[in-house]
């Protein structure tokens, strides 16, 4: 009679949410393009340089501990996003692929 308890649960890389929440605050102070493509490139590069933080969560559930955890990762996040933004600003791809 066991129900499929896992059916509504998903595995997420918590770090993705952290980068998404942090990127705007970092790049607004930098001379880097803020278009969607560049933002995605910066996010991908930053995530490749950050340790993944996988969590099991129910679909649609918000991370209630976000602000607590965010404090621990702030320095690493800001550093990784800054480095990624420099890389993207030197090699922007927004004009090379879709026009
Ligand atoms: Zn751009």
Task: Please give a structural write-up.
The model has no long low-confidence stretch (mean pLDDT about 85). The protein has one domain (about 20-90). The chain has helices at about 15-25, 35-50, 65-90, and strands at about 10-15, 55-60. Strands 1-2 form a two-stranded antiparallel ribbon. The protein is mainly alpha-helical and about 100 residues long. Helix 1 crosses helix 2, helix 1 (about 15-25) crosses helix 3 (about 65-90) and helix 2 crosses helix 3 (about 65-90). The chain binds zinc ion. Zinc ion (ZN) binds near residues 33, 35 and 37. Zinc ion (ZN) binds near residues 35, 37, 38 and 94.
Condensed summary:
With 99 residues, the chain is mainly alpha-helical.
Record the strand order, biggest sheet: 1-2
Give a quick account of the main beta sheet: strands, pairing sense, barrel closure.
2 strands, antiparallel
Mean pLDDT score, rounded?
A: 83
What is the number of beta strands? 2
Oligomeric organization of the protein chains: single chain
Number of helices: 3
Can you give keywords for this protein?
single chain, 99 residues, mainly alpha, two-stranded antiparallel ribbon, 3 helices, 2 strands, 53% helix, binds zinc ion
List the helices and strands and how they pair.
Elements: E1 9-13, H1 14-27, H2 36-48, E2 54-58, H3 66-90
The chain binds zinc ion.
